[in-house]
Q: What sequence folds into this?
């Protein structure tokens, strides 16, 4: 098991065509692990190179496991996709992601489903499957995330205040518009009545208002001065819904 990471390094170096592993990041990460695990033992390195060349010649990649397409989600910043092998130690993944994000490995926390990654475990042994999410956090990223959240909250509060002010202004404008509409309606009604009276005067007529005895809406009618009233009264009775023969019409001027 201790030679798994160096072999992964040699595989990534000798087989650049397998680019799905995010070559540059994994090669650099594996190099760090390689330096720490083998030191400068030339004999061990030569043996590993020979084994790796033999595996590549026979297409034997089973030791590295299946490809995993992971989603890396920093606590602050955009998430991205990253490819890995199920049989590689997670230490390689942690080194690669630290380098890719420009973070210090010693201050970076990697978790999956709330569990902190074990650098000595493999992805498969740790339960990481294809399309899994890896969360990345550091004190700096956490502080930036908190600051961004606070800023977003302030902006949301400001937006809400502006929205409330705009709603109040819209409400007041609606009230003003309704007042203007009512005034315009009254003015138009007065103007129409004045025009009607003027037209009546031009026709040598007068305006009579008949009050509904049943309490309903009355009838206003222009009557020519020289015409007989009987025809008008028949029409008024019909509009008021009363029997003309049983109805008496009494005159009352504006002075009472």
A:
């Amino acid at each position: 098991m201790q030679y798994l990471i160096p072999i992964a390094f040699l595989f990534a170096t000798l087989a650049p065509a397998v680019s799905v592993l995010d070559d540059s990041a994994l090669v650099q990460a594996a190099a760090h692990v390689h330096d720490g695990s083998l030191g400068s033992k030339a004999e061990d390195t030569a043996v590993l190179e020979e084994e790796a060349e033999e595996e590549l010649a026979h297409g034997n990649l089973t030791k590295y496991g299946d490809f995993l397409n992971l989603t890396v989600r920093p606590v602050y910043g955009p998430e991205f996709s990253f490819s890995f092998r199920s049989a590689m130690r997670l230490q390689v993944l942690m080194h690669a992601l630290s380098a890719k994000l420009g973070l210090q490995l010693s201050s970076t926390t990697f978790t999956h489903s709330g569990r902190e990654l074990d650098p000595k475990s493999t992805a498969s042994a740790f339960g990481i499957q294809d399309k899994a999410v890896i969360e990345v956090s550091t004190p700096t990223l956490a502080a930036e995330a908190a600051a961004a959240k606070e800023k977003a909250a302030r902006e949301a509060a400001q937006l809400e205040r502006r929205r409330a002010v705009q709603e109040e202004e819209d409400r007041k404008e609606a009230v003003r518009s309704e007042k203007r509409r009512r005034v315009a309606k009254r003015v138009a009604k007065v103007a129409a009545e004045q025009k009607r009276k003027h037209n009546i005067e031009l026709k040598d007529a007068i305006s009579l208002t008949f009050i509904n005895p049943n309490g309903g809406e009355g009838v206003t009618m222009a009557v020519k001065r020289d015409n007989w009233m009987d025809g008008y009264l028949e029409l008024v009775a019909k509009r008021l819904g009363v029997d003309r023969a049983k109805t008496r019409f009494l005159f009352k001027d504006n002075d009472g």
